[in-house]
Structures are given as structure tokens and as C-alpha cells.
Amino acid sequence: MRALVVDRSTPSGLRLGESADPVPAPHQALVRVTAVSLNHGEVSHVTDAPDGTVPGWEAAGVVARPAADGSGPAAGTPVVTAGWAGGWAELRAVDTAMLGVAPAGADAGALSTVPIAGGSALHALHRLGPLLGRRVLITGATGGVGRYAVQLARLGGAHVIASTGDPAAHGDALRALGADEVIAGPAALDGPVHGVLDCVGGPQLVTAFDRLAARGVLVALGHVTGEPEHFPLGSFLGDGGRHERSIVTFFLFDGAPLAPSFEWLASRVAAGRLDPSIAWRGPWEAAEEAVAALLGRRLHGKAVLELGPA
Description:
Elements: E1 2-6, E2 14-18, E3 28-38, H1 40-44, E4 58-65, E5 78-82, E6 91-95, E7 99-101, H2 108-111, H3 114-128, E8 135-139, H4 144-155, E9 159-163, H5 167-177, E10 181-183, E11 193-198, H6 203-210, E12 212-220, E13 246-249, H7 259-270, E14 278-283, H8 287-295, E15 302-306
Parallel strand pairs: 8-9, 8-11, 9-10, 11-12, 12-13, 14-15
Antiparallel strand pairs: 1-2, 3-4, 3-6, 3-15, 4-5, 5-7
InterPro entries: ADH-like_C, ADH-like_N, ER, GroES-like_sf, NAD(P)-bd_dom_sf, Zn-ADH-like_protein
GO molecular function: oxidoreductase activity
Protein name: Alcohol dehydrogenase zinc-binding domain protein
């Protein structure tokens, strides 16, 4: 089968080549992939894998062969998929627990953004508890996860505060997605917040934690800065309305059921109720261009590759 495989000799660390067809385990479906979505985390670490490896966390396609154990959907069913590798290929073996049924006829490129970006935003928001009437800060709001989080928090009834490095450039777009306020960083908050989804890490996480109200929760979702978090003395005192605040680490593949979430998100993307915020779209032959744009921080949203016929 054709696949994007790791090749350290290329600028992106990838090349379009051939790889052996995957052999599904009994609990896995074989999926014919039609579109994949790229994430900054995976493309920045793609060369950690040996040459010839097929990377890829999330993809959309159609079930070519159902799981032998009877779990999961039948052949011909459109699906969205997630996993640690194997997504950037014509065929993918997927655990049925990591596979969500998608509406027939929906845009596969849009659906491919659902599992990691949409799934991370949805499950991270669950960690905050009830959102109705709460003030929620989302840092890194122009990224793929951040844009889904803005929309989902608004659907949950939160007062959504989106943080971005350039509010003048991105404020209108974030408000269109559902942000009530757009600010330049947690330091610009005009009052405490009940919850934070931090997609940035480093000093922004520290400042955001300091702005939490009593019993507030910060979910540490992203670490794109690569900078450490240094908390000043007294950061964890509980006086002055700062009691019972918490920081929660996040891992999407933590064993929680994902298929129902993927299906719910896919149905809303297909219906136009959630915007996948695709910032770059092209054939998989243009993977080098997409990877360069992601690593260069030139994209605000998702990059999607569509797998055409051989």
C-alpha cells in the first residue's frame, strides 16, 4: 500500500512510498483511509520513529474489513479513527474502541480533525465539570484543539475567554466560533476564572493557575512552548479565596471510552454545528508543505491531507 513513511533524509522527515499492508488483530477493523489530519505534536517528533515507520494519529475513512471478534461497525461504514501510529496510509488497522461511526456522505477531510483535536477538547472540558454560567479560559485558542474547545465550551453554556498571541488578527474569528472575550494572555484577565484549558504550557500555565477562582480547575492540555513551569513561592496557598484549586494532567488515550465521543463530534461536524477550522488542505503528495507550515507556526487551525487514488 502507499503510505507516508518516516525518512530522515527529507526536510520533513517523511516521504510518500510503500509499506506492507497492516494485519489487523481480532479486535481491530481494517479501514481504507481517505483523509488524515496533522498535529503539531506528531510532526515535530516524527523522526523519533525508525525509518520506514508509518506515523499518523487521526484519520477518516471507510471500514474495508470489520473486526473478526464482531465488535465495531460493518464493512462500508464511514468512520473516524485514532491511534498512536499507522494513520498516514491507504489502509489502517484500528482498535474498534478507537473508531467512531461518521455520517454517510460527510466531508472526510473535516471528519479527520475530530479524534485528536475534537476529542481532546471535549474530554478536557469534561474534567472541568459543569460549564453553564462558568467563566472558562482557553489558551492557545487559535490552534486545532483550542478552536474546538472554544466552540464546545460555548455549547456547554460557559462564558468563554479565548487567549491568543494576536487578538487583533484573530479576535473576529474566535468570536465567530463562540468566544465572549479575546485576550492576549492570562495576565490580561479582568477577574478570576472557574476553569482553564491550557494548550500552551510554560509561563502561561503558571499565570493562568494564579487566576483560578476557589475550587477552579486547570487542565494542562498542551506544552507547545517547550518551557518549564516555575511556580513562585506561595502559588499553592489556599487563603484569600484560593482554596481547593487544582491542576489536572491530561492524556486522551487514558482508557475512557472514545468511540461515543468521536461519533457525537463527527455528527456535529457533518451537520455544520462544529467548525473543524481547516487552515490548510491538499493532497498527500504535498505533505512536505503542510509539515513545514505547521512547524513554522504559520497555521491557525488544522492541516488536512486527502488521499487520492493511486
